[in-house]
UniProtKB/TrEMBL annotation:
Keywords: Membrane, Transmembrane, Transmembrane helix. It comes from the Bacteria. The chain crosses the membrane at residues 6-29. This is MFS transporter.
Amino acid sequence: MNPKMVVTVVYIIAMFMASMDATIVNVALQTISQELQV
């Protein structure tokens, strides 16, 4: 694999992880606020 391909794959994985993290937080936020009674 050439370096440009490695950078591209790492970037795509990082963006996927960031979007998954945001989705998980948005889904869990309602439950967290209910548990903390906010």
